[in-house]
Amino acid sequence: MASSMKFLCVLGLILLIGSVVDGAGECGRSSPDNEAMKLAPCAGAAQDANAAVPGGCCSQIKRFSQNPKCLCAVLLSDTAKASGVQPEVALTIPKRCNFANRPVGYKCGAYTLP
């Protein structure tokens, strides 16, 4: 019994690693939680719709704006939530950075990019 449980755990780990290495996630080879760590400059702007958006934040968000699925996954990630990010505010950052080619109207979970 113990050996079959150990086998299942090892098999599960291999499958998990395989899915990460495959790069089939919203953000390619990196997880949304790892990508969320790169948005530290956006912390204040993601919690307060009236806060100025720092240039470093706009630079990072611009990278994600090219891939709306990744942007949504990052802004709705466990890391973002644990950091106090308010999704309805965070999703306004591309507009507040004045990006002309932002993914307007893209559905992001229960939210829509303005």
Automatic annotation (TrEMBL):
<keyword id="KW-0732">Signal</keyword>
<dbReference type="Pfam" id="PF14368">
    <property type="entry name" value="LTP_2"/>
</dbReference>
<dbReference type="InterPro" id="IPR016140">
    <property type="entry name" value="Bifunc_inhib/LTP/seed_store"/>
</dbReference>
<feature type="signal peptide">
    <location>
        <begin position="1"/>
        <end position="23"/>
    </location>
</feature>
<dbReference type="InterPro" id="IPR036312">
    <property type="entry name" value="Bifun_inhib/LTP/seed_sf"/>
</dbReference>
<dbReference type="InterPro" id="IPR039265">
    <property type="entry name" value="DIR1-like"/>
</dbReference>
<protein>
    <recommendedName>
        <fullName>Bifunctional inhibitor/plant lipid transfer protein/seed storage helical domain-containing protein</fullName>
    </recommendedName>
</protein>
<feature type="domain" description="Bifunctional inhibitor/plant lipid transfer protein/seed storage helical">
    <location>
        <begin position="34"/>
        <end position="104"/>
    </location>
</feature>
